Amino acid sequence: MCRPGFLPTPGLFGLADFGAPGLPFVLGSQDGNIAQRAAQAGWLSPSTVQNAPFTQAITKRFLASTTLEPFRDFRINVTANYNRSDNYQEFYRPSATGAGFSSQAPIRNGSYSMSYFSFGTTFERLRADNTSPIFDKFEAYRDILQLQESIMAAGFEIIKTENLCTFDGQPAFSAGQGA
Q1: Contact (Cβ atoms closer than 8 angstroms) between residue 165 and residue 136
Q2: Is 91 exposed, middle or buried, given 0-12, 13-18 or 19+ CB atoms closer than 10 A?
Q3: pLDDT for 48-104, tens place per residue?
Q4: Strand pairing partners for 113?
Q5: Exposed (0-12), middle (13-18) or buried (19+): which is 95, by Cβ within 10 Å?
Q6: CA-CA to 35 of 20 to 30 Å: which in 12, 52, 93, 119?
Q7: Distance (Å, rounded) from C-alpha 126 to C-alpha 103?
């Protein structure tokens, strides 16, 4: 987290004499209200031309690997990974001289990647016209994921997703829902 316009002079462990911005901040807290708290405490410069954004970034990573040897001299290396990065930035400054602080131009972005086990579809044959039935399923799932994202953006939670898709022409259930 980066807090531009911070007025107190940091000392030992990044804390000012009176404890600003606080031990949780120094230890990596991603509190979204730190900018408001800092403004209320008088720790931020009231400049209207502050041109460095308040930034929060969090990255989560998981990596696991193992080697399987189902029979002598036949080794299979298995690796799993998960990477997620979330970033938020905004200009938190007064919009006019003497005005209160406000959030300006907020931007949230990130990235996501993970490994997956594809052995079950590795040997799937292409159709005569060189198209892939696996890719067709992938495209169909994309519509389902977009629908779920729209529902969550409207403030609703996804609990069950059965019958949103079909397999072999039959209504389907999400993993863990049963048959």
Answers
A1: no
A2: buried
A3: 888 888 888 889 999 999 999 998 889 888 889 999 999 989 888 888 888 888 888
A4: 83
A5: exposed
A6: 12
A7: 52
State CA 28 to chain mean position distance.
17
CB atoms near residue 36 (< 10 Å): 14
DSSP string, 80-131: EEEEEEEEEEEEEEESSTTPPEEEEEEEEEEEEEE----HHHHTPPPPTTS-
Short-list 113, 115, 108, CA closest to 83:
113
Query: Given a cut of 70, is residue 171 above it in pLDDT?
Result: no
Q: How many CA atoms lie within 13 A of 122 on its CB side?
A: 5
Tokens for 39, please give them: 């403004």
Owner of token pair 């030992």 = 12
The dihedral sign for the CA sequence 138, 144, 148, 151: positive
57, 86 Cβ separation under 8 angstroms: yes
